[in-house]
Every structure is written in C-alpha cells, then in structure tokens.
C-alpha cells in the first residue's frame, strides 16, 4: 500500500517528474504513430500501383449459362475456369476396371520413363559441372584466399552474372548454341549452378580457420598447396551438404527446362498443354512429385550422415 | 636439419599405414569415384556430347556473346517503354505474389506450429499440405493459371502467391515454434485469453523474423518473376524470349543486363529496409 501512497504523494508534490515522463511518453507515441501512418500510406500507394500493373482491376467478358456475354471482374470470372481445368485433370478411375483405367491414364509411361531418366541425368550432369566450376572458383572468390584484388573482383562478378540470370534464360540461349536437346539443358543448369554454388562455397571458405594455411605456407607451400592442404579439408563436409541440396533443386529445374526445348520431361508438359491432354498433365505431376520426394528423402538421409561426420571430432 | 627424400621413403617403408588410409577406406573411395565417373561417362554417351559439338556450340555462343558489345541502346521511347513496362510487371508480380502468399500463409502457419496447434494429426496433415504445394513448380502453376485467367501478369501473380503459400507457411510456422514460452506464460498469468497470449506473447518475438523472411522471398521472387513471362505469364521474360526467338541478340543482352541491374537494386534496397526495420531488434536478441 505504500507504493500507491508514494505515488500520490509525489504527484501532490508536483515537482513535474511524472508530468515530464508523461510528456516524453506521449511524444514517443506520436512519433511512432506518424511513422506507422507514413509507412501505411507508402505501402497503400505501392499496392495500388502494382495491382493496377498486375491486371487486378481488369474486367473480362464471360459467357453466361444462357449464352449472353457479360463484363465481369477478372478474378471471379476466371475461378470457374480454374475449377473446370482441375476437374478435367482428374482421370476417370473405377474400382472394377482399375488396371485398365490406370493403363489408360499412364498410357505413355514408356516415353515418360525414358524422359524421367533423362531428367535425372541432366540434373546429375549439371550438378557435377556446377560443383566442379563452383569449387574451383570459390577459392579465388573468397576474400581471405583470393590471390589478388582483380581475380577476386572478376570471379565474383562472373559468379553473380551466372546465378542472377535464371537457368531458363540460359537454356533459351544455349538451345540456339547447342541445338535442341539435353546438352543445352545440362549447360544451362550447370552454369546457373556454378554461380549459385560458387557463392555458397566461397562463404564457407571465408569462415575457415586460417592457421592451417599459415602452417602450410610456413613449410614452404605454394598458394595451391595452401588451398589443397589447408582449406579443402576444412570445407569438404559443408560442400557435400550444399551439393546434395543443390541436386534436389536441379531435379526440379531439369523437369521443366524441356519447356524451352532443353530436354527432359518438360517437353511433355508443353505437348500435353497444347493438345489439351489434361489427364496426361496430372500423370506427369504425379511422376515428378514422386521422383522429387524420393530424391529429397534419399539426399536428406545422406546429408544427415555427412553432417554427423562433420560434428564428429 | 630437414628431412631428405630418402628418409621419408624409409619412414614410409617402416610404417606404411601412417602414410595412407586403410584398405577399406581406400576401396570405398575408389568404388565411389568410379561410380560417379562411370555415371558421368554414360550420360556423356547418352546425350551424344562430343568435343566437336561442344566446340561448335561454344563458337556459336561466342558469336552470340559478341553482340553484347556494343549493347543495344533504345533511342526511341516506344520500345524502351515496353521494356520498362515489362520490368515493372515483373516487380508487380513479385510484390503482389509475395504479399498475397504471406496473407494466406499467415493463418495457416499457426495450424502447423507445435506450440499453437496441439492436435498432432491436424498439425502433421497441414504440414504435408505445405509440402504438396511446394512440390509444384511455379512455372507449371503459371501455365495452369494462364488457362483460367488468360495471358498476362495476373497469372504470374497467382502462380507465385500459391507456391509462396507453401514456403511461407513452413517458414512462418518454424519461426513460431522457435519462440520462447515465457512471455506467453506472463500474459496467461495476468489473465490474457489464448488470442491475447498469441498477440502479445508470440507476436513481438516473431514479427522481425517474419519480416526478414518476407524480404528474402521477395528478392527471390523478383528472380523467378523474370522467367514467368517465357510461358506468357507477364513480366520481362516475355520480351526476352521474344527477342531471343527473333535472334535480336543485342536487345536480348541489354534486357538481361537490365534484369541484373534490377535484381541488384532490389537486393540493395531490401538490405536497407532489413537493417532499418529489424537490425536493432536482431542485435538485442
């Protein structure tokens, strides 16, 4: 009870401490509210502008059930078509003729199997190329290991450009250079992977302990000896872990890269879309989904073993 | 006094195991390497990759790359406005896609967090739901939405939004699970309802994390937004694939450089926002 009486006593004394505190508090609140208001207004303006660019307010003509055409807002106009599309993708399966229905659904399974193997091959080769390229370039691209400033600058810019340009754009370019087929896909995903892995690897390199390198240098080792015996043993577990993660990403990437003609299952998506073979699409989804899940699971198990190795002294 | 080669050889002869790994380790290593090299050679054979083809392709790439200099500079306003419009569409796709994805993912993420949703069955099935959404490529979602909403950026926005629901819901629910339960207990002790516990106990802890996830994904969506146009879902990708199809390589390279510049700018800007809005909080954590 003394606390309250003290409080009253103080405010009765009126030396202004409380009043000053209240003023400062109100001031802070006002400032926070103003920042919040300005932020909200900016956000609303950006939102309205992007929504306008993004066709959010577009109206489209739709055919009504009675045949008349009417103007409707684009989102409710498109949703029924989306539903129709999804319904068309569901194959007709009945319990009595399940085998025949499944055979009908996966009617191109031989072609798909070949293309699926091709997809995984593309992912494997692209990952291998990316690992080699990224590994070699990660040492000159690391601030603590690079032999000189110019090498650092050039390798970093090269890796940045390689990863900023999406693999699908590289594929568009390489399909022209290497003609249609999986080779263009391998090159495209490989180049993008070099950029992505080079960055991750060089960050690992920047966090290493420099003392082993100094040891090798003191024993008369060259720059290559220092990297080989001082740096590589330290970074290897991390590199294996990142590589496995990238392999999963590349399986997804190579499954769609065929859309622009660079091999793999993606070309089947394009055919199924343009011939409106909706059940083929759902069959392809299932194939890719299962493959990616299996690879995810397998490489996760492997990665945990690698991380376990790393944690062991 | 340093060791001579003879002394090293003598030492190697005396204790061979100190200089090489034991046999099983070496054997495993050989098997692994020959497996990988064999796989690689099989792929080379299967894809018919020969030095001649590589050389020919690189020569063609050299020709294509030679169009980079001098880069194409748009002298008229009309075609340049098209390019700017494409870049703007890409940004709009990334911005609205990220925003819509986050808005839908936010409530779903609470269903997937262990410390909020205590019904194991419901939580785990929600989590599998996120996985299913994430398994579908954004590009394929874009193809589907083009069928429903027609060509244009709206299909791209919805494609990114849907695939981000899966990503955000997973990341958000992990962020929620990583919060401390002590503030929640505090709110509970002073008589707060379950909703107030979440609002005042968990909210202040996760808000900076959510914001930083949001910004990171916005950056990555700017990158993926650039390719959606290749299938017709709006953005700069459409112009780029159009120029490449017409063999206008100088314009294509200029567009690629504009994309790179835009991605740089976004990275820099969001880094600025991140350090301003969450830098202070993350230091105290």
UniProtKB/TrEMBL annotation, chain A:
InterPro entries to which the protein is assigned, alphabetical: MetI-like (IPR000515), MetI-like_sf (IPR035906), PhnE/PtxC (IPR005769)
Membrane topology: Multi-pass membrane protein
UniProt subcellular location: Cell membrane
Transmembrane segments: 35-54, 112-139, 168-191, 281-299
Listed SUPFAM superfamilies: MetI-like (SSF161098)
Keyword Metal-binding included in the entry's annotation: no
Name listed for the protein in its UniProt record: Phosphate-import permease protein PhnE
Organism: Antarctobacter heliothermus
Record lineage: Bacteria, Pseudomonadati, Pseudomonadota, Alphaproteobacteria, Rhodobacterales
UniProtKB/TrEMBL annotation, chain B:
Pfam families: BPD_transp_1
Organism of derivation: Antarctobacter heliothermus
Membrane topology: Multi-pass membrane protein
Main location: membrane
Occurrences of domain ABC transmembrane type-1 (ranges): 87-270
Family: Belongs to the binding-protein-dependent transport system permease family.
Membrane-crossing segments per the record: 30-47, 91-111, 222-240, 252-273
Subcellular location: Cell membrane
PANTHER family: PHOSPHONATES TRANSPORT SYSTEM PERMEASE PROTEIN (PTHR30043:SF9)
SUPFAM superfamilies referenced in this protein's UniProt entry, alphabetically: MetI-like (SSF161098)
GO MF assignments: ABC-type phosphonate transporter activity
Name of the protein: Phosphate-import permease protein PhnE
Cellular component, GO, one term: plasma membrane
Keyword entries, A-Z: Membrane, Transmembrane, Transmembrane helix, Transport
């Amino acid at each position: 009870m003394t606390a309250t009486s003290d409080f009253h006593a103080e405010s009765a004394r009126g030396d202004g401490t409380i009043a000053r505190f209240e003023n400062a508090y109100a001031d802070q609140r006002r400032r926070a509210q103003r920042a919040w208001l300005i932020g909200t207004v900016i956000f609303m303006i950006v939102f309205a502008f992007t929504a306008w660019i993004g066709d959010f307010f577009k109206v489209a003509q739709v055919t009504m059930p009675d045949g008349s055409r009417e103007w409707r807002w684009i989102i409710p106009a498109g949703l029924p078509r989306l539903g129709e599309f999804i319904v068309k993708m569901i194959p007709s399966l009945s319990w009595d003729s399940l085998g025949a229905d499944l055979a009908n659904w996966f009617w191109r399974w031989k072609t798909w199997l070949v293309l699926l193997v091709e997809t995984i091959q593309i992912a494997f080769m692209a990952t291998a190329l990316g690992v080699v390229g990224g590994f070699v370039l990660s040492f000159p691209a690391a601030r603590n290991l690079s032999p000189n400033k110019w090498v650092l600058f050039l390798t970093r810019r090269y890796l940045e450009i390689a990863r900023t340009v999406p693999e699908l754009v590289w594929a568009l370019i390489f399909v022209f250079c290497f003609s249609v087929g999986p080779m263009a896909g391998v090159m495209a995903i490989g180049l993008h992977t070099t950029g992505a892995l080079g960055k991750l690897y060089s960050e690992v390199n920047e966090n290493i302990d420099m003392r082993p390198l100094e040891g090798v240098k003191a024993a008369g080792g060259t720059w290559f000896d220092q990297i080989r015996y001082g740096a590589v043993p330290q970074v290897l577990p991390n590199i294996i872990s990142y590589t496995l993660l990238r392999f999963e990403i590349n399986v997804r990437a190579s499954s769609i890269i065929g859309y622009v003609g660079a091999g793999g299952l993606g070309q089947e998506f394009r055919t199924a879309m343009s011939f409106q073979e909706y059940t083929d699409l759902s069959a392809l989804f299932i194939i890719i989904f299962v493959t990616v899940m299996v690879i995810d699971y397998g490489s996760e198990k492997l990665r945990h073993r690698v991380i376990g190795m790393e944690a062991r002294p | 006094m340093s060791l001579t080669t003879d002394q090293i050889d003598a030492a190697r002869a005396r204790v061979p195991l100190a200089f090489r790994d034991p046999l099983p380790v070496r054997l495993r290593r050989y098997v692994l390497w020959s497996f990988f090299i064999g796989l690689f050679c099989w792929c080379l054979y299967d894809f018919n990759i020969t030095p001649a083809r590589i050389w020919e392709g690189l020569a063609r790439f050299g020709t294509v790359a030679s169009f980079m200099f001098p880069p194409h500079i748009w002298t008229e306003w009309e075609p340049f406005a098209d390019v700017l419009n494409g870049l703007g569409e890409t940004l709009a796709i990334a911005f609205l896609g990220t925003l819509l994805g986050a808005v839908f993912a936010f409530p779903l993420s609470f269903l997937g967090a262990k410390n909020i949703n205590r019904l194991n069955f419901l939580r785990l099935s929600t989590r599998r739901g996120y996985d299913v959404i994430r398994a579908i490529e954004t590009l394929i979602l874009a193809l589907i939405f083009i069928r429903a909403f027609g060509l244009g950026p709206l299909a791209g926005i919805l494609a990114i939004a849907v695939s981000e629901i899966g990503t955000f819901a997973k990341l958000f629910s992990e962020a929620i699970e990583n919060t401390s339960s002590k503030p929640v207990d505090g709110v509970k002790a002073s008589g707060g309802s379950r909703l107030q516990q979440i609002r005042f106990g968990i909210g202040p802890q996760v808000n900076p994390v959510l914001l930083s996830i949001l910004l990171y994904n916005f950056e990555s969506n700017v990158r993926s937004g650039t390719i959606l146009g290749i299938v017709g879902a709006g953005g700069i990708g459409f112009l780029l694939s159009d120029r490449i199809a017409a063999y206008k390589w100088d314009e294509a390279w200029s567009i690629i450089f504009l994309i790179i510049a835009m991605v740089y700018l976004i990275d820099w800007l969001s880094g600025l926002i991140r350090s301003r809005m969450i830098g202070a909080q993350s230091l105290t954590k």
